[in-house]
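Students often ask what a 'structure token' actually looks like in practice. Rather than answer in the abstract, let us consider Cystatin-B, a protein of 98 residues. Its sequence is given first.
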Amino acid sequence: MMCGAPSAAQPATAETQNIADQVRSQLEEKENKKFPVFKAVSFRSQVVAGTNYFIKVHVGDDEFVHLRVFQSLPHENKPLTLSDYQTNKAKHDELSYF
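Now compare that with the structural description of the same chain:
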């Protein structure tokens, strides 16, 4: 993958689920609600001065959210950050860069 170029969408992995789990509380606080389900379905990544992860997450029923999570470079020793998110997504909605 070229630096700056987003990867193709791929199925979520255990690592992707771990990243989503680490920002779950940030999303729930911003949305002022608890999600009964929080299962990463697919993701894309983009190498910048760190890594952006674009993650599609199933949050119950037919509802999905799209997350943009930033992981800083290892030497910066910073926690994962929920940079942005989109709610009211459906299973068939393509995971975009936002």
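One point worth highlighting: The two ends are 19 Å apart (CA to CA). Ask yourself how you might have guessed this from the sequence alone, and why that guess would often be unreliable.
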